[in-house]
Each structure stands twice: as structure tokens, then as C-alpha cells.
Amino acid sequence: MKVLKFGGTSVGSAANMRRVADIIVREGASVTVLSAMSGTTDTLQRIASFAAAGGCEEEIALLLAGLKRKYVRCAGELLSDGYADASAAVERTMERVAAEAAAYAGEVSQRTIIAQGELLTTALFTLYMKERGCRAELLHAPAFMYGGEVRVDGGVLRQSVADAARGVYYITQGFICTGPDGRLDNLGRGGSDYSAALIGAALGAGEVQIWTDIDGMHNNDPRYVEGTFPIRRMNFDEAAELAYFGAKILHPSTIQPCKDRGIPVLLKNSMAPDAPGTVISDAEVGGHVYRAVAAKDGITAVRIYSARMLMAYGFLRRVFEVFEKYRTPIDMITTSEVAVSLTVDSDCRLPEIIAELSELGTVEVDTGNSIVCIVGRLDHAEHGRAREIMEAAGDVPLKMISYGASHRSIALLTDTRNRTRLLRNLNDKLFGKDAE
């Protein structure tokens, strides 16, 4: 059993959808998870923002008209017999979004509005699969996918795909789910990858394939660094570190469900289906000591200075409890006798956090930073690895260094203005022709 997931670019046009259908049939996919057509979620988010602001009926109408043209045009290029059904589905969807925007009810309406892209894209694609002669069935993801404490109702899912062994192709939505309040919700940006992993784990799939427009996981960020190359094999821990610290091809939560069940994850390029991509599994992989580098932007550093730390126990617990209270994860942390420095990638609750931390000591906040993470086989028994990385960083100023928590990675904090230079320096020194 295979679970395949395709991102927004992969289903971003009629031509791309045809290519996706070819891949699904070739791979014999049991369940296919689709994102919304590229650009849809951003447009729906803008509609929700205008609705929240109030008095923006003209702007909302223009955005809805643009979305309608986009989907009707795609349906016209993709379908013949099913065109009328697809056009009716587009019309109903736009009416639903308009109604939610007109009677905006805060977060509830926003979640409903944003979810419509996945619902419409999967409906359109399922019609196309049927039109090309495939036995295709559309599944409603919120019937088995739940947010909050994210989970899949495996019993409902397995019953829904009972005919997969007899050649039925099941199409469902990524990203969306039923929230704790029983209403339509979502798993957050990039949640389609996570949806596919959870579905694969619940079904005991043989593999989960994540299809994007990039040929696998690269050793560095090709947006900023020239001469990067795809990594053909990785283990789960390496991939998890890279995804968490900024590798855009994979959602950070994707790896754990598959690792728990020992299900390989394949990262493939829908624009070049025959390219080998990257295989992520529990197998140890040899080769180069340094596997890849990734960067995560939007990082805020928080430093707490307090003489009460000196020779005291319980101080760090009190710091961590503040972040737990406001549901804000910590990325990096370093300590000295009288100071704690840590980083977060969300500042939405930062004012409340700073107010409570100020009761413990003097607090400094430093915004506009990036974490650059080097992943590889950094055996703590080996000498010289830390020196190699520091020398490779060159003249880039570093604000924090996290080393020792894992033998898989070392993380460096720098001002975002220096991020590209640091990525290039590390690429030249750690992956250049003369590197080990």
C-alpha cells in the first residue's frame, strides 16, 4: 500500500494534474493526499483577513472572482463530461466563502474559508480521474483526521479504503481536519505532508511518497547557494533535524509517524517523475560526514540575566514553565552562571512571556535572526569537527552555538542579514571539492 502526497505546485494547473494522475496510476497509489492548487490558500487567507477587517466587500468580491476564473479555467482544460459538475462545485465553493466572509465569526470563519481550497481541488481532481477511466473515490479528510492532539481515526480510515486492494484510487485532502470544537480546522502551513504521514502510519503503508517540484532533499538551500546537490539516502533523524531547521521540502512533523512505524518516506519531483529523489528510512547511511545544511528564519533570541541563577536549582524550570504556559516552543538554549539565552520562532505571545520572565531577572530581546543547522555524523568521540565548522563559518558573526545535544547536528545563530553568507561559507568548506 502506498500513500502519495502532492503539493500545490504539483496540482497547480490542468497540465500538472494530468502529470499527477499519470504518477498515481504508475505507482499504484492506494491513497493520494492533495494540497490546494498553488496560490489558493494565500488568496483565501487574504479573503479571511479582509472579512476580519470589515467593510472590504469589493476587495473580497475581486478575490473570489479571480479564484472562480482560475478553477473554472482549469476545469475547462481538464474535463469534458465532468465540466458541468466541476463548474457547479466551483460556484458552490465561492458562495460558501462569500457567505462566511459576509457573516464573519472570527477564527471559526477563517478556518472554514481557508479549507475550501483543498476541498475544491480534490473534488476537481477526482472528477478527472473518473473521466480517464479510473475507479476513483473522494474521501472527506475531516471524517477521520482530527486536530488539537492530532490523530487519525484508523478504524474509520481503514473502513473507507477497504477497496484499495481492488484497484480503487482514493483521493483526499491534506491540511484540513476536524478541530477540538467539532468544526472544520487545519493542521497549519505544510500540514499536507503531516496528513500523508499520519494516513500512511494509520494504514500501515509500505511507503509514503511526498511529491513536490524539487528533486529530493538538497545538501543546502538552492535558493541562496549555487551548486547544491540532492541527497539520495538519509535516515529519519537526519531528515527530522533538517526539516525542523528550515528544509522547505518537508514539514517538520512528517517524519515521526513514519519513523514510529518504520515506513520509508520518498521525496520525489512531480515535474521529473523519473528522477530518483531522496529515500528516508531507518537505515544508517555512510558517506560524507556532513550531510546537509538548512536555515530557519524569523528567530527571536531571548536572554535572561539574573544573579539568582548562581548555584540555584529550579531556575531553569521556572523559565521553561513560562514558555509552556504560552505554548511557545524553544529551539536553542545556552546557559552560563548568571544568564540563559534561548531562541523561539514565534513571537505571537512574546509580550506576555517577557512580562513574566522580567520577574526572574533582566530580559533582552533580539529579533531578526536565523538558525543555520549543520547535520551529519558528528560523533562526540571524534576530535576536530567543531573546529572544522567554526573555521568554515569564517568571518560571519555568531550569536549562539548549540552543540552536544545531538550527535546529528550543530546549530548556529546569526543575524538574518548574514544567513546567506554563512550558508555559502559552509557549503564551500564542508562540501567543496577538497572537503572530506
TrEMBL record:
This is Aspartokinase. SUPFAM superfamilies: ACT-like (SSF55021), Carbamate kinase-like (SSF53633). Belongs to the aspartokinase family. PANTHER family: ASPARTATE KINASE (PTHR21499), ASPARTOKINASE (PTHR21499:SF59). Keywords: Amino-acid biosynthesis, ATP-binding, Kinase, Nucleotide-binding, Transferase. CDD domains: ACT_AKiii-LysC-EC-like_1. It is an enzyme of class 2 (transferase). It comes from Alistipes inops. It catalyses: L-aspartate + ATP = 4-phospho-L-aspartate + ADP. Gene3D superfamilies: 3.30.70.260, Acetylglutamate kinase-like (3.40.1160.10), Aspartokinase, catalytic domain (1.20.120.1320).
